[in-house]
Amino acid sequence: MASASNDQELLPEQTEGFKVGEKKTMDEYNKLDADDEAMQRYKQSLGLGGAGKDLSDPNDPRHCIILSLTMDSEGRPPVTIDLSQKGSEKTLKEKPFKIKEGVKFSMTAKFKVQHEILSGLHYVQIVKRKGIRVSKDQEMIGSYAPNTDQTPVYSKRFAEEDAPSGMLARGHYTAISTFVDDDKKRHLEFEWAFDIAKDW
Q: Are the CB atoms for 135 and 89 separated by under 8 Å?
């Protein structure tokens, strides 16, 4: 996967002065400021203290399970990268998909959270062409409580982007993508490939 030189590249850029808060258990969050109405509303926005049965799998130690990444673009059906099975990401680099030059597209991540609150999940992507980095993109996904039967899966649509265009932009690209949280824990990292072409 990523070499040691890429390790720092694959982390989200930090806001100066920002400090990650102390990690707490679900029980500690539920008891925190029980008499503070604003805090109760905030905790509910994170999915804490609400109704619903926790869906965390006691046999699966992962905290964040990335299920899929889908590219939506006008003029073609959505392209979904299925990441739900362990190891499914290992062959993605060998199966590039095609993107029409100049087209607008957006990505959507589907994922599950279990066991504890996930704080500050980011998607970070490094794109290279012929071994040279051409872009680094990152998207803040957010903080989430473990999924319940009322919200079994989370979905986050990223900002719309424009594919590069022109004869020089056409060709084969490789990318390394990672889902990383505020604690710099990488929940999934994978390499994949795509081709920018004149048409679909």
A: no
Q: Are 50 and 150 in contact (CB under 8 A)?
A: yes
CA atoms within 13 A on the CB side of 110: 13
Question: How far is it, in rounded angstroms, from Cα 152 to Cα 142?
Answer: 17
Q: 102-132, pLDDT tens digit by residue?
A: 999 999 999 999 999 899 999 999 999 999 9
Instruction: Give the Cα separation of 45 and 178 in Å (integer).
Output: 25
Q: What is the pLDDT of residues 141-166, one digit of tens each?
A: 999 989 999 889 999 999 999 998 99
| Burial zone of 89 (CB within 10 Å; 0-12 exposed, 13-18 middle, 19+ buried) | buried
Q: pTM of this prediction?
A: 0.78
Bridge partners of 66, per DSSP, are: 111
| H, E, C per residue of the chain | CCCHHHHCCCCCCCCCCCCCCCCCCHHHHHHCCCCCHHHHHHHHHCCCCCCCCECCCCCCCCCEEEEEEEEEECCEEEEEEECCCCCHHHHHHHCCEEEECCCEEEEEEEEEECCCCEEEEEEEEEEEECCEEEEEEEEEEEEECCCECCECCEEEECCCEECCCCCCCCEEEEEEEEEECCCCCEEEEEEEEEEEECCC
Name the token pair of 53: 């049965």
